[in-house]
Write a structure and sequence with these properties.
Length: 216
């Protein structure tokens, strides 16, 4: 059994790696812009580290972990390189691969953010918020840098909803006294499955206002 600190590091590292792979794949397949290697790596690093940086700034518990421990940047850069190489070899299967990578990163980051909140002594709702911020922050930053509206703000497949459910399951089981390992696996799995299900079966949120103009 891993200690809570070691388990947090494990899922945070995995989240960073997987998010970097996904960020590189997303940038490399973007048809609006012709990103060069710097653009792809930059967007991959934003995807991988953005949510964690925002989480740690909100916690105000010293400098963000990614700036204190260079291993985060090494892992993110490695993930970006893997994403670039995978893009070249995956071909038409890139979309399917991106679905799995995207869902895995969201589940990992949601639980990692909530774990960081619990370890800092925060209550349920603040820890839930940190889980959501960690899960969607990197993707939102990547979207802004690539000239898109952050997907969290528009109608689409479950993103913040999947992250929220992952954090709720993790925090609920942790509060009920389950082992941290069990809570982590359950929360991560829920986030992964809900996000992947929304991508495969096209589950979507509904827009508050239709784009159609007023009737005449």
């Amino acid at each position: 059994m891993l200690s809570s600190t070691s388990l947090f590091s494990l899922i945070d590292y995995l989240g960073v790696f997987v998010a970097a792979v996904g960020g590189a794949l997303e940038a490399a397949r973007d048809e609006r812009y012709e990103f060069d290697i710097i653009g792809v790596f930059g967007l991959a690093l934003a995807s991988a580290l953005g949510g964690g940086l925002l989480r740690d700034v909100l916690l105000q518990s010293g400098p963000p972990l990614a700036l204190v421990h260079p291993i985060y940047i090494v892992i993110a850069s490695t993930g970006a390189a893997v994403g670039v190489l995978t893009r070249r070899s995956a071909g038409r299967r890139t979309d399917q691969l991106l679905y799995v990578v995207d869902a895995a990163a969201l589940g990992l980051f949601a639980v990692a953010g909530s774990t960081r909140g619990v370890n800092a002594g925060l209550l349920f709702l603040p820890s839930l918020l940190l889980g959501g911020v960690t899960a969607v922050g990197g993707g939102a930053l990547r979207d802004v840098l690539s000239g898109s509206t952050p997907r969290i703000f528009v109608r689409g497949r479950f993103y913040a909803i999947a992250a929220t459910l992952a954090s709720i399951v993790f925090l609920g089981l942790d509060a009920l006294g389950f082992s941290r390992t069990t809570s982590t696996i359950a929360g991560t799995s829920v986030g992964f499955l809900v996000r992947l299900g929304s991508l495969i079966f096209d589950w979507q949120t509904r827009a508050v206002r239709s784009r159609r103009g007023p009737s005449k």
